[in-house]
Amino acid sequence: MELLKLENLSVHFQVRKGLFKTTPSKAVDGVSLSMNKGETLAVVGESGSGKTTLGRASLRLLKLTSGRIFFDGVDVTDLKDKELQRLRKRAQAIFQDPYSSINPFMSIREVLMEPLAIHKAAEGKEAEERVYKALADVKLTPEEEFAAKYPHMLSGGQRQRVGIARALILNPDYVVADEPVSMVDASSRAEILHLMRSLQQKYGITFLYITHDIASAKFFSDRIAVMYLGRIVELGSPNDVVKDPLHPYTQALIQAVPEPDPANRLHERKVIPGEPPTPTNIPKGCRFHPRCPSFMKSKCDVIDPSLAEVKPGHYVSCHLY
Amino acid sequence: MPRLQVKDMRLYYSTLRGVVRAVDYVSFDIGEGEALGIVGESGSGKTSLGLSLMRLLPRNVHTFEGSISLNGTELKTLPEEEFRRNVRWRKIAMVFQGAMNALNPVLRVEDQIAEPLLNTTSTSREEARKRVEDLLKMVGLSKEVARRYPHELSGGMKQRVLIAMALILDPQILIMDEPTSALDVSIQAQIMNLMKRLKSKLNLSILFITHDIALASDICDRLGVVYAGELAEIGPSETILTAPKHPYTQLLLASIPKLTGSEMPKFIPGQTPDLANPPSGCRFHPRCPYVFQPCSQQNPSLIILNQQHSARCWLLEKS
């Protein structure tokens, strides 16, 4: 069953260039994607690939340039006020920085009560109970003790769990987690990811896991979408994308990730030259062609490839296939 | 004799919460052309260790003790002026964390790279310009970059400029503190390739500070794992990565999601200790799965397992 469908979504920002001129930065440029109920889709990309913009747009937190969003079969692209608030209750977010995304003047109890009050989901005794249940879910126990604490009394990992509890307390159907562990200590990262995965499965939540770390996506998602310069260039199961990557960009990304191996130091890594261009200056044809090792002249630099299914469930946007 | 020898280094800070023991009796050495990795989580004291070698200390230092010797000369007792003149940047240079903010935004690249050369030697501007050009070439940048300002450079280019800056006085020791943490993986791989080349070409000794043991394996010949201000284990990369003896090293390695293999990443329950109030006994004991009677009583010493490999754990004392 499909929960969320993005149809040809584009988000362009106007970037100032000089005193009077602006130029569009095409952060997300024609992305179509659908997510099934209860699945975790990982969006993997480097900075500037548009992964965060895509996540925010899917929550209707940004103005779309074009495209449509369907949530549970309903077109929510142009929802306003009351109806939008109903969507907000069902679609929540976990943010990257647990130090700045929680109000330092509020106790954990107040942090978790706030969404319940805003959406009039529960009050009084019932609200209290939901707070304790949410804390138990993210393993911040004893619950009463943690509810009384303030953010500065918690470690980064514990704060991020408060962030997860806050996102889940309204029993949402859809959650966007934007780099939820990049600021958590290395030894605690897997703990947060395991926790998110188990809660996602327990409550059948649809998760959009945004990350730059393709290795963690391999373990904590059902499908992986690789983004480059505002487009999805490859989409498939973790097995397909990680073990048998088809797009030259995905291949290069995987080769760039170091694994703990003492032999690494003895040879140089194969790398793609250069850096990704900015989204204000997107190359013609295939966006990856200036850096691509398999570049085909007068094809890749002319024709923009579309995302095509090359194996069941495995999509790639590349002229090689 | 190793190029750099650090012995019983202690660096404590006075804070409102009490004395924070950021570096607590840390000893290691680095040979000529060798890279030693210092791997630890945030708050383990690894950055303090790097800064203490450069003697770039904050004002609230409580204790700064131990011995640092370079080619047999003790640096710890050198007067500040002499250290500044002859050691800092000239013998020991550093690539700072955060490529994005480590450059002066209002100075051209060439002026920033050449500054130490012009300030400490009698090099002419012309010679300095030539030297900057050579350095830029060595770090893989075109000479046009010299005339640019930092905002005109990408993250990867800034990082290369920082490396060039550190190398201008031909240092023997290069300290790199999370040099790629602000960069994307594809750019990180480019920079690591560059460092591998420079290391062998210039016979550099590198102290590579990072939270990412996988990244450290990309350049380091030996690895030291720090936990709560102390070295938990130190040894050749082969040993640390394939046959670690300290439970913390073992668990840290098991917590990394690997692209090859299907083993689910594990995690270490609990959290890193507060250095103002470290746990009694072994500092890792509250999170250790193998904890037994002596662990909470007394801190084990760094046990020498063989000439190269030592670890701080009661399990090893027993056997």
Describe the protein's topology.
The complex is a heterodimer of chains A (321) and B (319).
Chain A: E1 2-17, E2 21-36, E3 40-44, H1 51-58, E4 66-71, E5 74-75, H2 81-90, E6 91-94, H3 108-118, H4 124-137, H5 143-148, H6 156-168, E7 174-178, H7 186-203, E8 206-211, H8 214-220, E9 223-228, E10 231-236, H9 238-243, H10 248-256, E11 308-311, E12 314-316
Parallel strand pairs in A: 3-8, 3-9, 6-7, 7-8
Antiparallel strand pairs in A: 1-2, 1-4, 4-5, 9-10, 10-12, 11-12
Chain B: E1 4-15, E2 18-30, E3 35-39, H1 46-53, E4 61-70, E5 73-74, H2 80-86, E6 92-95, H3 109-120, H4 125-138, H5 155-167, E7 173-177, H6 185-202, E8 205-210, H7 213-216, E9 222-227, E10 230-236, H8 237-242, H9 247-254, E11 303-304, E12 310-311, H10 314-318
Parallel strand pairs in B: 3-8, 3-9, 6-7, 7-8
Antiparallel strand pairs in B: 1-2, 1-4, 4-5, 9-10, 10-12, 11-12
Helix pairs in contact in B: 3-4, 3-5, 4-5, 5-6
Question: How would you describe the overall organization of this protein?
Answer:
The complex is a heterodimer of chains A (321) and B (319). By secondary structure, chain A is an alpha/beta fold. Chain A is built from 10 helices and 12 strands. Chain A is globular. Chain B is of the alpha/beta class. Chain B has 10 helices and 12 strands. The longest helix of chain B is centred in the middle third of the chain and has 18 residues. The mean pLDDT of chain B is 93. At the A-B interface, helix 6, helix 7, helix 8 and helix 10 of A face helix 6, helix 7, helix 8 and helix 9 of B.
